[in-house]
Automatic annotation (TrEMBL):
Gene3D superfamilies according to UniProt: Glutaredoxin
Pfam family, one: Glrx-like
Organism classification: Eukaryota, Metazoa, Spiralia, Lophotrochozoa, Mollusca
Native organism: Mya arenaria (Soft-shell clam)
Family designation: Belongs to the glutaredoxin family.
Name of this chain's protein: Glutaredoxin-like protein
Organism domain of life: Eukaryota
Region (Disordered) location: 1-21
Length: 108
């Protein structure tokens, strides 16, 4: 089942060394069932998948009507939390910039 975006709660967690570190950022993929372009986009992200948690949001579900209205003709669409990153294809440079912003505390 595909998850829903929840753009709150950027909590920190304690590492094994006792320091407080941010969790891996959440990347939301707005998608739908049988989306070939979405599958290709996920493959393109493989080299950097260790840097984030990917959550898929099925825009065709009734509870995701808002996202369907916004993105029905644009999937795949990616956000890091609430920040738009790219659509139609993966832009690795845009991902690196968004993930760096998260790492530097911009999203907290």
């Amino acid at each position: 089942m595909l998850g829903q975006p929840v753009f709150a709660g950027h909590a920190r967690h304690a590492s094994s060394t006792g320091t407080t570190e941010p969790p891996l950022p959440r990347v939301y993929l707005f998608t739908k069932t049988d989306c070939q372009l979405c599958d290709e986009a996920k493959e393109a992200l493989e080299p950097i998948m260790h840097k984030f948690v990917l959550e898929e949001v099925d825009i065709t579900l009734p509870e995701n009507e808002r996202w369907n209205e916004l993105y029905r003709y644009d999937i795949p669409v990616f956000h890091v939390y609430e920040e738009f990153v790219c659509k139609h294809h993966v832009d690795l440079l845009a991902f690196e910039r968004a993930l760096e912003k998260y790492k530097n505390g911009v999203f907290r």
